[in-house]
Amino acid sequence: MSLGTVPNALVVIAIVIAVLVRRLSWTELENSDADVWRGPVIVIGIGIYQLYDRHLGLGGAEITLLVVGAVVALVAGVATGRVAQVERRAGKVFYRLGIPGLGIMVAYLAVRLGLAGVGHLLGASVTTGGALMVSIGANLLTQSLVIQSKATHTVEEYTPQ
């Protein structure tokens, strides 16, 4: 690990911890589409910037790892969103992932880090940093969209604006 990857690793770890803490506790689901996509899109943007900043030439291994990472992120996002708990309290909608959601998130992160390890062993240049940020952002965006859809179907008063 080079000195340049240490800040990237710390940013990824901080984001993962912040997201897990927020999503495991009951959180109000704002009645706004911006609440659903704002955070994940920022994380994806940071990841894309990090990938672009390195001016990487993508070979077959890199493209394969990016596609597999994206598929894993989307599948885990759908699964996590589906097991999320949504309920209405005092006229507001709240959600949390709960223990099943935590299990899916931990499994997703383990698989994603395993892909990064495989990529590192293969000499692929897109296995950490930006690719991991894009994958986490895609996962969070998918989770948020599924949770919002679930809230719309579960709680009649919730309609995103």
Description:
The relative contact order is 0.22. Helix content is 71%, strand content 7%. Helix 2 runs antiparallel to helix 5 (130-154), helix 3 (60-83) packs antiparallel against helix 4 and helix 3 (60-83) packs parallel to helix 5 (130-154). It has five helices and three strands, in the order H-E-H-H-E-E-H-H. The chain has 161 residues and is mainly alpha-helical. Strand 2 and strand 3 (92-96) form a beta hairpin.
Topology, please?
Elements: H1 5-24, E1 27-28, H2 33-53, H3 60-83, E2 85-89, E3 92-96, H4 98-122, H5 130-154
Antiparallel strand pairs: 1-3, 2-3
Task: Describe, in short, the structure shown.
With 161 residues, the protein is mostly helical. The protein has helices at residues 5-24, 33-53, 60-83, 98-122, 130-154; strands spanning 27-28, 85-89, 92-96.
Comma- or semicolon-separated keywords:
mainly alpha; three-stranded antiparallel sheet; 5 helices; elongated; single chain; 161 residues; 3 strands
Counted by DSSP, the helix tally is 5
β content, as a range? 5-15%
Mean pLDDT: 82
| Total beta-strand segments | 3
Shape verdict: elongated
Largest sheet: 3 strands, antiparallel
Radius of gyration: 17 Å
Q: Give, in order, the helices and strands.
A: HEHHEEHH
The low-confidence runs, each spanning 5 or more residues with pLDDT under 50, are: none
- Provide the spatial order of strands within the biggest beta sheet: 1-3-2
Question: How helical, in percent, are the residues?
Answer: over 70%
User: In angstroms, what separates the terminal alpha carbons?
Assistant: 45 Å
Structural class: mainly alpha
